[in-house]
Amino acid sequence: MTQSARPNIVLIHWHDTGRYLGAYGRTHARTPHLDALARDAVVFDNAFSTAPLCSPARGSLFTGRYPHSNGLMGLAHLGWEYHANEQTLPMLLAPHGYESVLVGLQHESADASTLGYDEVIDVNADRQAAPVVAELAVDKLGTLAQSDTPFLMVVGMFEPHRPFPAHRFPTSDTAPVDVPPYLPASEGVLEDLRAFNAAVTYADEATGRILTRLRELGLYDNTIVVFTTDHGIPFPRAKSTLFDSGIEVALLVRLPGSTPPRPRCPDLVSHVDLVPTLLDVVGAPVPVRVQGVSFAAQLGHGETGQRREEIYAEKNWHGLRQYDPIRCVRTNRYKYIVSYEERPMVPLPVDIAISPSAIGVDDAAPRSPVELYDLEADPHETRNLAGQEALVETEKDLAERLASWQHGTQDPLLHGLIPAARRAASNRGAHPNRTEVIEPQFVQRS
What we know:
The protein is an alpha/beta fold. Helices cover 24% and strands 16% of the residues.
């Protein structure tokens, strides 16, 4: 494949959204722009993150490797970084003629210039509102459209991460919301969901601006468009857990030349699979170190492809004192979770703990060391079947799969406690909630 034949790539990712979009059946989530993209793309109904928190999830998205393999096992603003020799998506595309630019949010490093982009357009939280990020992306697209060089543009949006300030996300006390089955329909939850809905719509409008500009510039038909979210929604029993509600993600992928409507894909897919898929589609080799599996065939690129029988996810560190080592394997039918320390069944990160949705939540009830759920009979994972005689063979099989994955990926948890990050971040600019003024930066790779 010649350079001129290589498609561009635009990858847009949001914080804390899970699958809370109209395209995934959330009837009261007002996301018309992403719903339109979904009609033009392959929608993955069973896509999952490798971790239920921000930095580790994004680390897998951009390296194709699990958090314990790439080193990003906790939050970047708390000192966690990739291992020294990790290769990110822009690094892997550079030898194949791709120019790369990052616009807006990243949560992989305290220093965005280490991530391999030719250009970083970074903005601080006060200026990081989705419309601002979208306009920066739109302006840059105008420049990129004047070149024949294929490009990778990654656009990160802070929304709909907490908090949900009322001046930015006005709501109505009567606005209808979709209450997930694992949450009570309390006034606090309803209030919180209305604000969350408003933040989702706010980000959708900004995303639509970028998609519209791609069409206006004549780039849309030669661009791979990817939209995804980092992990589940920021509510109790979702974010920071390995329940499906914590690791489920939206994933929409449109290839150039796609003819709508595209079929939805029910196959299991992991965020580690995106890097090998994009490399596959653009005709670049996939390094042996990449741990994901290409799903290019599910996009209609190529005739055959490997289908996953399971996905894996993990959690190590969330906050400075929130060590919560857990691992899971999920098939189409079952979920098997192993906890290595005594921790609550419903851990509450600080931003959720102080929210209206946390009122009345029992965050002290202990979690079982082993959990087994039948996702067909119990999709919201409320009945732990571990130890039941009828499922002894199923539990044994899943335990063996999980152990094999841990050994095959050299999971450090097999050797004991994973220590906290060795150093605090020297640059608070990596934190998505930062408040100091940082002007846009342009970092050219030599």
